[in-house]
Amino acid sequence: MSKGDLGIDLGTATFIVYQKGKGIVLYEPSVVAISEKTGEIVAIGTEAKSMLGKTPEGLRAVKPMKDGVIADYKIIESVIKTFIKKSLGRFFLVKPELVIGVPTKITEVEKRAVFEAALNAGARKVHIVSEPIAAAIGAGIDVMKSEGNMIVDIGGGTTDIAVISLGGTVVGDSVKIAGNSMDEAIMKYIKRKYSLVIGESTAEEIKKRIGKAHEMYETYEMEVKGRDSITGLPRTDKVTSDDVMEAISQILSNIVSRIKMVLERTPPELSADIINNGIHLTGGGALLRGIDKVIHEEIKVKTIISEDPITCVARGTGTLLEDENLLKSVATTYMR
User: Fold this and answer.
1) How confident is the model at residue 110 (pLDDT cuts 50, 70, 90)?
2) 1 inside domain
3) What share of the chain is helix, strand, coil (3-state, %, to 5)?
4) Contact predicate 290/213, CB 8 Å
5) CB of 282 closer than 8 Å to CB of 184
6) How many structural domains are present in the chain?
7) How many CB atoms are closer than 10 A to CB 58?
8) Which residues pair with residue 154 across a beta bridge?
9) Which residues, at least 6 apart from 87, have a Cβ–Cβ distance to it below 8 Å?
10) How much is the pLDDT for 92?
11) Confidence (pTM)
12) 154 and 287 both lie in a single domain
């Protein structure tokens, strides 16, 4: 493998790229601004995200990933091409190998599409790895051991739940309830309670800045700007952490019940390991204050938030770039 090889987490909320020998080189929101005239990408990431809901005619800001899978292949191809160019600089004619994380329940057709997009973008070889396995590796878990570990990866579009042993997923589930669902629930709740219409980006900011999942955590207040749903005029109001907790409570219950369902299908020997090792939380959703406490209280198993949970999948793909034997054991490799 060469220095230009990349590990990519194509998240619904964030694109994270790990370059071999360098670490994380790109960490941007999964938003792309496109010129409607030429179809060319005008901006990727933070710059494009700031255009969401504000683009003038002729420009369109889109999220090319939906529920953890590619919603627009042409755009993703261009995005991967941009990652390769940015990371390799003047050496971009060198064809790199890529390791890409995908959700547990992705179909063969969707896997193939990821591979095609990456090859067309200029990759020499593409390795596809399931996100919970990449997240577990990124969280420092030895996935090749014969003991069971449970990973709950709460991303933007999907929550991936997996019991991992001997380099594979023994029992797994992938649900389209995650960070974006929380943002939508916050938008609906604020409209219902305060008659205030806010956008997706504002809802996400509320969740990140003052959100909490458990009542024992401190309550903060935040001033929110939006549109009055009755008069249609701009207005400001104050929202609290308790509002967020109330808004997302049903989503958290759904995630907890899916974790229970996976545990019910887990072989008893591995269940015993999970009691010892705990449930590992990764992904941006793990940063919600008190989410570990909610899971622990409901399931009665210690729940651990992994270090820097958002980058676990990308760091896992990075470890795979450095360890060829592990890569062969856990990934599916495609080449033309």
Assistant:
1) confident
2) no
3) 40, 30, 30
4) yes
5) no
6) 3
7) 11
8) 159
9) 4, 6, 17, 19, 25, 26, 96
10) 58
11) 0.91
12) yes
